[in-house]
Design a protein that fits this description.
Elements (H helix, E strand, L loop, with lengths): L2 E6 L2 E8 L6 E7 L7 H12 L3 E5 L16 H13 L2 H16 L4 E10 L1 H12 L5 E4 L18 E6 L7 H11 L5 E6 L16 H19 L2
Parallel strand pairs: 3-4, 3-5, 5-6, 6-7, 7-8
Antiparallel strand pairs: 1-2, 2-4
Helix pairs in contact: 3-4
Keywords: Hydrolase
GO molecular function, one term: hydrolase activity
Protein name: Dienelactone hydrolase family protein
């Protein structure tokens, strides 16, 4: 079944689970964008399952409104997405994601290895997972607000792969400079900047989708997960 329920510290919430053909398998927690567990996030899970991972995308907006599945195609949906972003508590989100890690590690089909991949808001959460949880590795795609969280970098104890867009309208040049300075020399952080790309360059059919940059980032992610989780 693709839909499962996970018991978190504040209650139960739903998640999309994609299962690979060969089991047991390592697992990946997919941290959503600001649009909820929509088709884009489900497709990411299916892509990861195709590579041999249990892939789980939890509904981290459940405290605000369960079951959000909107797109980036209309002004009204963008407005709602930013409302959700403003109402969202990242600390509570990390508690939920930590519960997902525990759920997957205890899953009969999991090898016990669990990493994360996050996009936009989820990219921020993937960074925080690296700082605050025991996930085995983490991948952040164009995470937002990371320049305000660099003080937590000393807590990173497992590998973190980061994809940053040079023209990201949500991560201005001064913020990017701080991130590079704060994380560029961290021994566990592998930071890549994609020149002439804007936010969400890896979102297929998105306004700023860049096929070449997305392939490069996804290939790096594939190799990174295989190196740190196996498959």
């Amino acid at each position: 079944m693709p839909e499962i329920n996970i018991n978190g510290p504040d209650g139960a919430f739903s998640a999309y689970l994609a299962v690979p053909k060969v089991l047991p398998a390592p697992a990946v927690v997919v941290a959503q964008e600001i649009f909820g567990v929509n088709q884009v996030m489900r497709d990411v899970c299916d892509w990861l399952a195709g590579m041999g991972y249990l892939a789980c995308c939890p509904d981290i907006f459940w405290r605000i409104e369960p079951g959000i599945q909107i797109t980036d195609k209309t002004e009204a949906e963008w407005k709602r997405a930013f409302e959700l972003f403003g109402l969202f508590d990242p600390g509570k989100g990390i508690e939920d994601l930590s519960a997902v890690i525990s759920h997957l590690r205890d899953h009969e089909d999991c090898t016990g290895k669990v990493g994360s991949v996050g996009f936009c808001l989820g990219g921020k959460l993937a960074y925080l997972m690296a700082c605050r949880t025991d996930s085995d590795c983490n991948v952040s795609y164009y995470g937002v607000g990371l320049d305000e969280l660099l003080g937590e970098a000393a807590a990173i104890s497992n590998p973190l792969l980061m994809h940053m867009a040079s023209l990201d309208k949500f991560v201005p040049p001064d913020a990017q400079a701080k991130i590079k300075e704060g994380l560029g020399n961290h021994p566990l952080v592998d930071l890549h900047v994609y020149e002439d790309c804007d936010h969400a360059f890896a979102r297929i059919e998105g306004e700023h989708y860049d096929a070449a940059a997305a392939k490069l980032a996804n290939d790096r992610t594939t190799n990174f997960l295989e190196e740190n989780l196996g498959s």
